[in-house]
Batch of 3 targets.
Target 1
Amino acid sequence: MASTSTQYEKLKMAAVDQGLFLIQEVIGRFKRVESILAIVGLFYVGKTATAVSLRLIEGIRVFVLSQFRWHDLTRYGQWAVVTGGTDGIGKQYARQLAKRGLNIILISRNMEKLQATAQELEFDFRVRTQIIQADLSEGRHIYPEIAKQLEGKEIGILINNAGVMYDSPSLFLNVPEKKLVESVNINMMAVMMMTYIVMPQMVERKKGLIVNISSISSFYPLPLMAVYSASKVFVDWFSMALDYEYRDKGIIVQSLIPSYISTKLVRFSNFLSTPSIIVPDAETFVKSSLQTVGSSKRTTGFWTHGLQYWTYEHMPQWAWNLTSWYMFKTIDNTPKPKSA
């Protein structure tokens, strides 16, 4: 019995030792996993901190330091062409460029507004102007006449600003066919054709600046603004590709991807129509965006829009779609009458 009891005790102790060994082994493995997770965590935190720091430095360079740098825009040429130059962003580009000494060629469809804006520029800034009445929504046949009227001008800057948006957020099939065709002809074809007309002389002189107005809505598909969003993707990608193609010809092609700006395009929303720190008015935006020329070839143009873009970069597409959908669904989508 004593021998049996002794053997039992030995077996019991062996089992305990084996159990302790297993526990120690498991703890050791957990510690190794914990160490690996700690290393992964440190790597992720370091990577994120580096990315945030680099983006902050980039933001300071583009939106802060650029404000203290004077970029002589007249070195590109004597004339600047601005499409949609009688209202909103386009008019402010015309004013700010005239203020810097460039003569201005305005392209728009409303003759009365063209004449009034041209007179305003001549009186305020003592520059020369030319007006071209053209309805960019009519398609390809209008461009030979535009090209003819631009002959003989040393055009150094082209601002492809003209653009249209839905009268208000709407399902695709609820948008009038005419508005869909306008979106293609103005938002895309006009950018391509005006560039095709103006760029050859820039290439010949080995200098020129083209600013194409895209939109932050090109970041992800935008439900209830499907065609508008898609058209702005074209502008953004076209601009970046063109800049790469002609980078050795002395030509800068800047893609502007702003968020909302308080202009008549967003009159469907009281919030977006009211100037604020996140929805600047056209003058504030253009003054800022012009200063980014030479500092960034793809930019939101305004510092709070840069912060918005950074936020969207870290937002999954489903969250973007859901947010956009419910934001736009709260807006009355009954078409509003256009202002004169």
Target 2
Amino acid sequence: MTLLVDTHSHTVASTHAYSTVHEYAVQAKLKGMQMFSLTEHGPSMPDSPHPWHFGNRHVLPRFVDGVAILRAIEANIMPVNGGHDIPNGLHPFLDFAIASFHEPVFTPAGKAQNTQAMITTIETGDIQIIGHPGNPNFPIDIGEVIRAAKDNNVVLEVNNSSFKGSRSGSGPICKQVLEMTDQLDWKVVFSSDAHVAYDIGNDASSRACAEEVGFPLERIVNRDAHHFVAFLAQHNKSVATELQDWLGAL
């Protein structure tokens, strides 16, 4: 299957990715997707775009051939105690925010420190999604993180690229994330983390993992545009109001 809503992708604005916004829009339309998200890296990453990039995305159309485009960011969890690197003035320009551990920014630490940094980031109230928490380089107490996420209406991501070598060894941890999320009565997002347009919407490995553990698909927040926009509305994101007419026509 293909995701109807993809919450994580990178364009040529992040220089280790290879496709333009237009190329993503074309592929999303061909695959029958409803929505995808532009989530370039936050400013602490070496190849992050200039902050003006995020502030200027109002020039992008909200829709291309009926596919909605969300304007977001993959922020960095900051050393040593957590938090993120989203500049204060940038929040009004973002439809949502992911926060993730990245080795060039946060040197991998022990489980207790990683867990506390992630929870501190969740508790800022500025983040809606925790990116690729299955990275084995950053061990965490999965249960503690999910409990904190649930308390703050934040969801963990099951990142399809993590199964394909980007973060080798993530598969078993992603499985644990799904199992623990179900046990704790919470939710996740599935994402492609595409770095080339042909990969947009790809959740094949994540879907297979979910089927293996019997994870209920109704716990996937971005299973369709209606549910993901409702999640953004819970975070008082103005894009949720902006998209109401479009949702009504789906």
Target 3
Amino acid sequence: MPKPRKLSVAENQRLKRQLVRRLRVVAIVAVIGAVSAGVLISWEQLFPIPEDKLVNVYFTHSCRCAHSWVQALQAEGFVVKMFEPETLKPARAALHTPASLNGCHVAEFMGYFIEGHAPAVALRRLATEHPAGTGIAMLSPASKAEGGVDGPVVLVDQEGISHAWIGEPQR
């Protein structure tokens, strides 16, 4: 095995300067990466979504209609987060949704449950009026509710009783 040669003082200093430059580049890249990751991780705390714009939608794998309703809400300026749990039971229990109103998806908006394809106007009314109740439900088929109020929207009170809120009263 050959003997390693001795470096001159000038060569040794040049190699040290190169190493220091490389370490600086690595350190700068690491700091930029760490700061970027920190901002991304805490983005929602730094720039929270206004409560009156955020809708959390919970749907099952078999639900085929939630996506069209979500698109309609997004077109109206709402920020929608979608969740696909195995079952909707925990979400419905937390939101106190009456079993008689259960469909294939449920949403949470400002602490209220939303069953069915409630139009954006109903959500805006919830945000401005803050009625006493646990949530609202759309009583017409999903295909009619996307663009506006085509059927009655009921407000469900603390006892689970539905009251006419928007549109035709229940008969």
